[in-house]
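Good morning,

Both structures are done.
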Amino acid sequence: QRIALFAARGEFVAPPALADLYPVGTLASVGPVENAPCCGREVVRLEGLYRIRCHSLVDTGAAVEARFERLLDAVEDTRTLIGLTTALKDAARRMNQSFPGCTYTREALTRASEVERPDQFPGAVSGLLRHLPLEAQQHLLEAEPLTIRLQEALGEIHGYLARFGPRPALRILQ
């Protein structure tokens, strides 16, 4: 089963109008309901498939259906994309080492190691970007081209590590 996900621009309104939502979102597959190991809550795992742009919404009474198009990325320099994917995998490892108890970093590291194509990376590392405000996350989702999205995601992860990651031990010189 699949679901179209779009972030609300402000406070959620039900049913939403097109102007209430950011136009670029994600088509996701809906996984099984699981119990979260950290708190025991029931959670549904969503896996982002690709970016989409919403054109219209239809309220059927039972649900709101979105009419959308898939956003395709332009062909870019393969060496640049490989370098960015390698750097993102390294950043995911560093985040997991810095925050070993965090479910999001552990999951992002697992997903990053399974990525086969550069366009899969933004979704794979999205767990590392949960600390960002919604507007910043939306900016990353809408950024074009793919190299810019990957560079900006990497910059956000490095910035987070610089602010909150482990600090080197201080040595007192006498």
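Second structure follows.
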Amino acid sequence: ELLDFRKELETKGYQKTIEVEEVKQVPVLLIDCMTSYQAFLENVDVVYQKKRNRSIRYIKGFKRFFRLYIEALKLKKINVEQLKFIDVNDKKVGYLTEYLIETKGFKNKSYNNIITALSTFTSYIINEYGLNYKNPFFGLKREIQIKVTSITNSEFKQLMEVITPENGLTEFDK
């Protein structure tokens, strides 16, 4: 064994073999970042410890959210094919929220799911590629205010005047 090791060292010129890690190409465009995240969700070239089993429904959900994101930007005449990831700012996120609420009519649950997913996507890209960029989805209000309509105080008082123990309880035949 020792002789084999000595021969190996001699053939390598007594140099230690260093494994060079492949440098990731940082995606610049928003579209490329979406593609990169989609590959991550599908575990393409993901190191073993970071792999997750995600349902097809979960992955398709992100594709739908990305489509909505692109539609919202295109509606405001933004060239999404040339839009850089770091050029997405509060104003462009505002276009998206307006589109989701006003144009698409999404309610709380759907709206919150989309915004949370896109915030997660943005954080992943920032962290994965070490970008010095603030996530414009952070601090975004995650809830749409719903106007609650109920009876007025005077209507409630009128109702209480009408209800009596005699007419307030109805028994049904058993």
